[in-house]
Amino acid sequence: MKSDEHNIPQTAAIGGKRTRLSQRGHRALCVCIALFAAAAVVGAILLCYRLGLLGGVYGIHRYNSDYYNVADIAAEQLSVHFLQLSDSNGDCVYIKAGDTDVLIDAGAEYAGVVAAQQYIDRFCTDGVLEYVIVSHGDRDHYAGFVGSAGVKGIFDRYDCRNIIQFARTNSAGEDFLQYCAARDRAIERGANFYTALDCCNGNHGAQKVYRLSDSVTMEVLYQRYYEQYSSEENNYSVCLLFRQGSYSYLFTGDLQQAGENALLESNPQLSDVTLYKAAHHGSASSSQEALLQRIRPQYVCVCCIAGSVEYTQQAVGTFPAQSLLDRLAPYTDRVYVTNYARVSRDENGRGTNVQYSALNGDIVFACTDGNISMYFSHSDSKLVDTEWFRDNRTLPSDWSGV
């Protein structure tokens, strides 16, 4: 009995110790599971945020109703939308002319396509893009056509009827091959495919001028780098001129000086334009004086992250460059920019982008019966009137009275 009595509490004690260890282990396991679940939820939220499903970097932010009304824009005979999609410099321009939908480029980020579709579907209600133009072979213009793992690109989200692409490229590598594969899938589903040179020469059923509506046409302008080699990929850019009555709207992709000279040489009739999309995101090497003297733009829209140090640490050279604004100043102060970056500089003056925000946000130029309207998702301020400009640029003399 003594032996048994002695063993009972010993066993109980051992059992009790095991019970306490089990409880601790259970609590630890519960904590781990909770932390894992929380991390998964946060990760899912961040992914949705990143993809634009909850707004975020690529999402459509809350529209300012003072400057933007979807119903009013949808009623316009022509609307040109400069989309702010990402935290990288890139182009994505959606155009609505009557019942015709046109998309020029698709942004810099594969995942940005979610936000692009959210935007486009406000106005394109049949899932058809009659014309898709891929200006040149740099990723910041074609990424959205491709999409990413689990995120379909534009070519797979829409019925793309006609694809017009750059005629030459120096691009290669996996990213470009993915673009080609996505494009080829669209062609297999029935899309017509033309190069800019096909359009200029009328080959394979392509046209130089396309009628988009009763009042709007789209012309593919010839420039020699459709046929000749350039060390700069940007100079292969497809150039487009839209006409609406006496108004014209010019898009030159990322053309740099040599490409602009080629465009001018081949198009002596090119003259004053109402709207100009600043080439190459407003870089110092584009929109040179020779072009601006010819086109004398009234409105200029710049698809860029103003002040971003993505490409240069020289503050005056960040998009839109000081030299570009100086060249534009004699012609117009109606310059608008999609996004801007807040930059933090270390003790050596090296900058890092730390925050991205809308400047004008999504910019819409619209025209009906000769009456021009502008809409903005964030602010209607001209660039010269923004805090970013006051903090980062010098006022050109031609804007001194603004």
Outline the structure in words:
Helix 10 (322-328) links the parallel strand 14 (299-306) and strand 15. This protein is α/β, with parallel strands linked by helices. The protein has two domains: 1-51; 63-399, Ribonuclease Z/Hydroxyacylglutathione hydrolase-like (Metallo-beta-lactamase, Chain A, 4-Layer Sandwich). Helix 4 packs across helix 6. Helix content is 31%, strand content 25%.
SSE topology sketch:
Blueprint: H1 2-51, H2 70-74, E1 78-82, E2 93-97, E3 100-104, H3 113-120, E4 128-134, H4 139-146, E5 147-148, E6 151-152, H5 154-157, E7 159-165, H6 174-188, E8 192-195, H7 196-201, E9 209-211, E10 216-221, E11 239-244, E12 247-251, H8 257-266, E13 275-277, H9 289-295, E14 299-306, H10 322-328, E15 335-345, E16 351-358, E17 363-368, E18 371-376, H11 387-392
Parallel strand pairs: 3-4, 4-7, 7-8, 12-13, 13-14, 14-15
Antiparallel strand pairs: 1-2, 1-17, 2-3, 5-6, 9-10, 10-11, 11-12, 15-16, 17-18
Helix pairs in contact: 4-6
Question: What is the total number of structural domains?
Answer: 2
Radius of gyration: 27 Å
Indicate the CATH class of the largest domain.
Alpha Beta
Query: What is the name of the CATH architecture of the largest domain?
Result: 4-Layer Sandwich
User: How many strands in all?
Assistant: 18
Write down the overall geometry.
Answer: globular
The end-to-end distance, rounded to whole angstroms, is 105 Å
The percent of residues in helical segments reads 25-40%
Return the string of H and E elements: HHEEEHEHEEHEHEHEEEEHEHEHEEEEH
**Main beta sheet, described?**
8 strands, mixed
Lateral strand order in the biggest sheet = 8-7-4-3-2-1-17-18
